TrEMBL record, chain B:
InterPro entries given in the database record: Ig-like_fold (IPR013783), Ig_E-set (IPR014756), SoxZ (IPR030995), SoxZ_dom (IPR014880)
Domain Sulphur oxidation protein SoxZ residue range list: 9-103
Protein name: Sulfur oxidation protein
Length: 285, 108
């Protein structure tokens, strides 16, 4: 009897030793199909990428949240897509133009476009994303002012335009202008530790991707689903809002939206999701 | 807040006696009346307080909605259809506005 008790005790100790120090939860193995269109949520990483496989944040979410995104009727983000469609067709400003006056039907002219942003803006000599492209059109062609950052209409219109690229693989052309040097700068920022907590983007989204941070499951931090409907805010969240939120959480001073730092980061982070389908509007917790 | 926009999804046709699934969603901030703005003033409550669905005049489903319901309320329920007709959906706002949507179904 003594002998067998000792064996049981040893077994328990072995089990305790095998327990990981941090909770590990692997991403689910599930397919995301939106309106009969299959999304790429896992794909081989591009050359020079730290991961072997890039994965959509969808794989890291709870079943209920995943389901919301998979049904375009239930997805609350689709309400903003509809709102964006109204703005697209609405005449505004002294020139008496709407987006549609020049670009006609977004389903045709904007198809796939959102998968290739940020691009190089030769006029401004810096990268341009969808939000800034909208502002450029408003100022130069419509005689309007640029939107204030995260204006409800800016988010809705960006969501609408990016939704026209639903299912298209993210692909940036880094040979445009000086985009490559912005990518380099973005990469440097991604690995630079900041704030009182001394975290870099990579501390969570690379070194601990797949682990839990308190009750939250850390994804690879991909940009392919932005703007994203976040259940916590019950609203659309833009990429630059998320960047600022993450940087704030490291207890650092956070840069302005669309500043050089965050545009460089957008170029680099978007590239890290090369090959993933655009999922806008994705649903996250 | 932009004008709330109702969305409804149900099959265009069904066989007599079939149980169909009806999904409804409306864009609405559902301001609970518990929050404060940046100046510390209470943001007045404004929610959708009632939802109902009628089929050819008879109530199929209805409910009262309370402030704890989150933004953009979504309802999914089922109904048995015996004849062709029109589903009418009504959402009542705290400010008295009524948002409506209709969809017909053909029963073969």
């Amino acid at each position: 009897m003594r002998h067998s008790l000792a064996i049981v005790g040893l077994g328990m100790m072995m089990a305790a030793l095998q327990m990981p120090l941090t909770a590990q939860a692997d991403p689910v193995d599930d397919a995301l199909v939106i309106d009969d269109l299959e999304m790429v949520t896992r794909t081989k990483a591009p050359e020079g990428h730290p991961f072997d496989e890039v994965r959509s944040g969808w794989l890291y979410r709870e079943a209920e949240t995943r389901e919301l995104e998979a049904d375009s009727f239930q997805n609350p983000g689709m309400l903003y897509v509809e709102q964006g469609a109204d703005i697209w067709n609405r005449i505004e400003g002294p020139e008496g133009k709407s987006c549609a006056s020049c670009h006609n039907d977004a389903a045709v002219t904007m198809k796939g476009v959102g998968a290739n942003y940020p691009k190089w803006d030769a006029d401004a000599k810096r990268p341009i994303n969808v939000e800034l492209q909208i502002d450029k059109c408003r100022v130069e062609n419509m005689g309007l002012e640029a939107y204030k950052f995260d204006h409800a209409e800016q988010k809705a219109l960006t969501t609408y335009i990016k939704n026209q690229a639903l299912g298209e693989p993210v692909k940036l052309d880094l040979s445009q202008g000086e985009l490559q040097s912005w990518w380099d700068r973005g990469k440097e920022l991604y690995y630079t530790r900041t704030g009182q907590l001394n975290f870099a983007c990579a501390s969570c989204h690379e070194a601990n991707s797949g682990q839990y941070i308190r009750a939250d499951h850390l994804s690879q931090g991909q940009a392919n689903g932005f703007p994203t409907y976040r259940l916590k805010q019950a609203d659309m969240v833009s990429l630059h809002n998320r960047f600022r939120g993450c940087i704030r959480d490291t207890r650092a001073e956070f840069p302005k939206a669309f500043s050089d730092e965050l545009m460089a980061l957008e170029v680099y982070v978007t590239w890290r999701g090369t090959g993933l389908s655009v999922e806008t509007p994705s649903v996250r917790q | 807040m932009a004008t709330p926009k109702p969305r409804v999804k149900l099959p265009k046709s069904a066989s007599a006696g079939e149980v169909i699934t009806i999904k409804t969603l409306i864009s609405h901030t559902m301001e609970s009346g518990q929050r404060k703005d940046s100046e510390g003033k209470v943001i007045p409550r404004q929610i959708i307080n009632k939802f109902s669905c009628e089929f050819n005049g008879a109530t199929v489903f209805s409910c009262d909605i309370e402030p704890a319901i989150s933004a953009n309320p979504y309802f999914e329920f089922s109904a048995r259809v015996k004849e062709s007709g029109t589903f009418k959906f009504t959402w009542v706002d705290d400010d008295g506005s009524v948002y409506e949507d209709e969809q017909t179904i053909e029963v073969k």
